[in-house]
């Protein structure tokens, strides 16, 4: 009886038309290969997959959202292979994949999840929130207001449709429904300490005063948040045991989860995410936001700075510049642009929007 019900449900999935609202292209794309697509909630995994499916013949694919509460996994495992064979399914999508669901033999398999699984037969594709260049595609016009919108909205595509008075609660509800209560509490603390040094032990010391939690449980939840890419850590150069700096997956989480305001830290997090999405290997050092060894370069995040303060800053890190042969120093600002003379390195002052859109 359960199998029959599941066959009826699969038939419903098969016949239902996917919603084809206007899709704005991302920098990542799907071709004929089989994929495992991972990313945080609302990063755009489902829309990416559905846009690809809409380019195929309707009868050639089957889309299943594994979060559908009508799905009985045991019955699905007993009926899915025969259903795909009977209907000549070429492409099977298991959105929000449940590892209890068995794979079936199809030409193309696509799964999406927050946590990456060790599946050698699937090419792994990571979908981060929008970077600045992708964000601009959502703007009706590109002018001086675009960067301010990016600060306000962050890189989660749905935020463009949420009214300003509802954004914080919208994000809070999404995170509460996606994460465990411990993970949510950890993320709230990470938001408070964004762009600062923060260890799992410090999190434990703070959280144990407000809730009952073991050190092992906290460490496991902290590592899971990293695995899901809700938080990122940046190591200190040549100091593997030094406390790492913590960054959020999206700057919109800062204002949604914390009352603390620090624009300089928010700006630094935004720069870090651009480096992350471009796969740039970088580290931090004392007094230096980002050191890029392969380019003999450093990046300083200074949204608002004058030349006098910048010269003082360069003097304070001159020993590092000399020791590591730094050839290029990039100072990223909100709107200042120019170059200054330095005896050891070239120093370029670049507004964030120009830097983020550059090569």
Word description of this protein:
It is a single chain. A hairpin with a 5-residue loop joins strand 13 (338-340) and strand 14 (346-351). Helix 1 (2-15) crosses helix 3 (73-86) and helix 7 (181-192) crosses helix 9 (215-227). This protein is α/β, with parallel strands linked by helices. It is 39% helix and 17% strand. It contains 14 helices and 14 strands. It folds into three domains: 2-126, Rossmann fold; 129-262, Winged helix-like DNA-binding domain superfamily/Winged helix DNA-binding domain (Arc Repressor Mutant, subunit A), CATH 1.10.10; 280-359, no CATH class. The protein has helices spanning 2-15, 45-53, 73-86, 132-136, 145-153, 167-178, 181-192, 200-207, 215-227, 252-257, 263-277, 307-316, 318-323, 352-357; strands at 35-38, 61-65, 91-95, 108-113, 123-126, 196-197, 231-234, 245-248, 283-285, 288-292, 297-301, 328-333, 338-340, 346-351. The strands form three sheets. It has a six-stranded mixed sheet. A five-stranded parallel sheet has the order 2-3-4-1-5. Strands 6-8-7 form a three-stranded antiparallel sheet, with helices on both faces. 30% of the residues are buried.
